[in-house]
Design goal:
4 helices, alpha/beta, homotetramer, about 25% strand
Chain lengths: ~150, ~150, ~150, ~150
């Protein structure tokens, strides 16, 4: 089972979300840092495309701000402006700070850096974990496979 | 049922192919003209990505050269060099010339121009018909859906 | 004459710079905000290309962080991390805060937004002022013209 | 002095052109093959940008179709359709066939392949010879330098 998210704050969400609440949908988690070039150039555009391509009652697109460096530079105040400027409208969670510099959800999932993309099936099982750039063709196929 | 292809010549194929022979696989047909900018910039790269992303025992990627203009400029001699230069390695069929300027398979399928992308399921049913640029995310999802 | 910059802080500069000190060189000023998508996707890459293409004893490439919105989100602390992550190595000035929300140099030059690109000739004359995306071909030509 | 072009046919030109006739202008020659991917993706778009960016009474943009491979595939009939489809409106010369497979102008200039870009100053001197992809910033600067 995919471990629950540890979140300190949500943006673009009328209320806090949990993976448990999202059972029945495919959940796509885009883990990013707002000042990571690969996230800005590849990860966030991919997440926006996923959000636009699949109906929200079938696929839940979620951002996860996993700050593991430059913590003072990527605060929630800066993140809020980033989401506005880059027109990110899907829910985005701030990963809860952990001991050392790695936030808790990032640690639990063993993410190696940003961007990372996680796929969870409608039963709550962790089904894919990508690090770095991934092709839209492949992600489209993986999401559709979990939708069956 | 997807109508059979009318082909005057094959490239990159050890023997002539028919849709009937391909039952059991998802068949993806990229209809293109070698001098159509949208085909060179979008359609052919997409087809090459599909060919690379899915195993060939599950998904058959096929090009279809549907020349409906500049017929003297896009002969099989020129097409052969094009396929070599653009590193197209999947089978490519030359659509058989028809009355007027429209080749026969293009006419049968009612294609509106190039690039067009056709999806056929493993039972031989026509399942999607796109004209123009399509997103990799969407095509990846459609192919995976037919693979179920 | 190009008006002098009003700067509260410099990055990537061993000492504070003035336009007066730069007489004898073409000065290119890229005015940007670190969370402006057009700056990240077009303006900063152009500025990095200019910095790489022309010798630094002939052309001085300077960034100017002209924050006129989301002031709390684009502080010098965040800017420092941005410059590190996006590998910006030319000198970058923080435009000094002004009354209302417009910083002083931005106000003086009458800039309409970000990105803006300013060209100053070796005698200190303001010679071009672009707003928005500009072509590399055109900027290359304009810089070379001032170098004569 | 830049050697004269050896041309078998012109497109997009009301009459045959010679370098001698073009004295007084900077001449930019884009040597290409219509089925060379680097030409289609980089060289031709650059040439179109140059043609659009500089006034035609100052800068003469000329294409040169230097076919050194797949000769049967890239005939003037196919080239004509290519120029139409890719909206190339500047004059294009067909390099005259030579002994072996290398056309005559390509041989005379010692071009290593396609795309190649040649710059000639208003006095007819050969001033630059690039092979492969070149940056718009650099070419813009080089053209402007010759315009002085």
């Amino acid at each position: 089972m995919a471990p629950e998210l540890n979140v300190s704050q949500w943006f673009n969400a009328p209320q806090d979300l949990t993976l448990k609440d999202l059972r029945g949908k495919v959940v796509v988690i885009e883990a990013f840092q707002m000042l990571c070039p690969g996230c800005i150039l590849e990860g966030i555009p991919l997440a926006k495309s996923i959000h636009a391509a699949f109906p929200s009652d079938k696929v839940a697109m979620i951002g996860l701000h996993t700050v593991f460096e430059h913590h003072d530079a990527m605060t929630p105040v800066s993140l809020k402006a980033f989401l506005h400027e880059f027109k990110v409208t899907f829910p985005v969670a701030v990963d809860k700070a952990g001991p050392n510099n790695i936030p808790q959800t990032m640690e639990t999932y063993g993410m190696r850096g940003t961007p990372s993309l996680i796929l969870i099936d409608p039963e709550g099982e962790l089904r894919a974990h990508h690090f770095g750039n991934v092709s839209e063709l492949q992600i489209g196929a993986e999401i559709a496979t979990l939708l069956k």
